[in-house]
Amino acid sequence: MQEHAPRSSPVIVITGTPGTGKTTHAQLLVEQSPLPLQHINVSDLIREKMLHDGFDEEWQTYVANEDKVVDELEPLINAGGGLILDWHTCDAFPERWVDLVVVLQCNHTLLWDRLEARGYPLKKIEENNEAEIMNVVLEEARDAYAEEIVVALDSDNTDDLESNVSRIVQWIEAWRKNQQL
Ligand code: DAT
Q1: Ligand 1 center to residue 177 CA distance, Å?
Q2: pLDDT per position as a tens digit, 4-20
Q3: Closest CA to 168 of 80, 104, 111
Q4: Partner of 113 at 20 to 30 A CA spacing, among 5, 31, 67, 79?
Q5: Ligand 1 centroid to 119 CA: how many Å?
Q6: How far is the CA of 117 from the centre of ligand 1 (A)?
Q7: What residue ranges of the chain have pLDDT lower than 70?
Q8: Percentage of the chain surpassing pLDDT 90?
Q9: How many domains is the chain partitioned into structurally?
Q10: Considering only CA atoms, which residue is closest to atom 24 of ligand 1?
């Protein structure tokens, strides 16, 4: 267990290949959470605060500067937690920051359709689809964090979405009780 400043609300990472449903889950979780949570879409933050080393034309994406991302988020973490960090990668976040890591997973045919609907170039759809098939994000999460805080959840349909969010809500209730011990 890592030492950190007391938190009034947990820090939850929601990660997964683009299109697996991170933002959709985070938005519903903010509504249903028994403790206040601020949703931080890290990709949006990178664009807005220029936390990158330029735009990669080939992959049509900003090249994140992870040091700048960590520096930007650190004050929020130290201010008492209560955050959902929504990003397609997770190992940049120091272990001491994180109370729970949710890795969303999606059937790769469904994922293909979601990314196509988003207008991603073929190459980017293929790359993300392959990453999903190979469990790249789950492996990254398992390498970076203690086994007991990493949970992999299916995100194929709205039933999955609702049950995942209620599961996380139950986890938050348990976290809250635990803090009061
Ligand atoms: P991400 O934030 O991981 O890139 P998103 O939340 O923007 O993904 O979702 C991408 C699209 O897929 C969006 O149109 C909503 C849909 N979607 C995501 N999770 C879903 C789920 N569990 N059931 C049905 N649709 C889902």
Answers
A1: 31
A2: 667 889 999 999 999 99
A3: 104
A4: 31
A5: 14
A6: 11
A7: 1-5, 181
A8: 91
A9: 1
A10: 157
Give the binding-site residues of ligand 1, using a 6 Å CB cut-off. 16, 18-24, 114, 155, 157-158, 160-161
pTM of the complete model:
0.96
Write out the two tokens for 123: 């190459």
Give the CATH number, domain containing residue 123: 3.40.50.300
Range of the domain at 19: 10-175
Computed on alpha carbons and rounded to an integer, the radius of gyration of the chain in Å comes to 16
Q: What is the ipTM of this complex?
A: 0.99
In sequence order, what are the beta bridge partners of 56?
A: 61
**Residue 4 CA to its chain's centroid (Å):** 20
In a domain, 180, yes or no: no
Question: Residue 102: inside a domain, yes or no?
Answer: yes
53 within some domain: yes
Q: Identify which of 24, 42, 128 to mutate to test ligand 1's pocket (most ligand atoms within 8 A of the CB).
A: 24
Q: How far apart are CA 16 and CA 110, in angstroms?
A: 14
Is residue 89 domain-resident?
Answer: yes
